[in-house]
Amino acid sequence: MPSSPELSIVIPALNAAARIGACIDALQSFEGTKEIIVIDGGSTDNTVTLAASRGATVVSTTPGRGSQLGAGAARAQAPWLLFVHADTILDTGWANEVAAFIGCPTHVDQAAYFTFALDDFSPAARWLERIVSWRCRIFALPYGDQGLLISRQLYGRIGGYRPIPIMEDVDLIGRISKSARVGLKSKAVTSADRYRKNGYLLRPLRNLVCQSLWRLGLPPEKVARLYR
Q1: Are 143 and 117 in contact (CB under 8 A)?
Q2: Residue 1: what pLDDT?
Q3: SS3 for 8?
Q4: What tens digit of pLDDT does each residue of 45-75 get?
Q5: Quick check: is 219 in a domain?
Q6: Do 54 and 27 meet the contact criterion of CB atoms below 8 Å apart?
Q7: What DSSP string describes 94-109?
Q8: Domain of residue 41, residue span
Q9: Ordered DSSP codes for 186-215
Q10: Average pLDDT score over the chain
């Protein structure tokens, strides 16, 4: 693996016991990891125990992904930050790709994200993956479940994650120039449970409506209520 700077990995979590163990296990393959920080928003299951048993630093805070991500970044110590959702598992090969990215000095002013994938073999899942691939190819617009790799220097310059209850990922990526958003080939395999529960058509439509309302200026708190 190429020599590279150290990396702090931040995982926001809330009742994520079903997946967080596998999430952290997949992250152990990167030799340059300085720390794995799980920011727990008040889990009532075994999330904290499972994370701690795998060597992660667990910090408890109030729930809210934006504030949790911000708290994790504030605590992290490495020059590079990787944000990963607790129900996402990075596929084989991600560590080499990340090492190559952060080992290149010119990438300090860029941010990278992984290829969206779901742990579902249904045709509906493949359809959604193609839609996300098109969105990223045309607009370079990843969502939080694709992870975000960013230098602390760039993260600080754009102001980091804001403590908003929804759209924290779109808000942050929008402050990075489109030309500085880099897609990686490695997959971020995310749980499809929410799509199986809410529908492969209904949930993306709801996401699109909420994002549109947010871009039109509706306060994030109201968008969050509509989303729920």
Answers
A1: no
A2: 43
A3: strand
A4: 999 999 999 999 999 999 999 999 999 999 9
A5: no
A6: no
A7: HHHHHHHHHTSGGGGG
A8: 7-197
A9: EEEEE--HHHHHH-TTHHHHHHHHHHHHHH
A10: 95
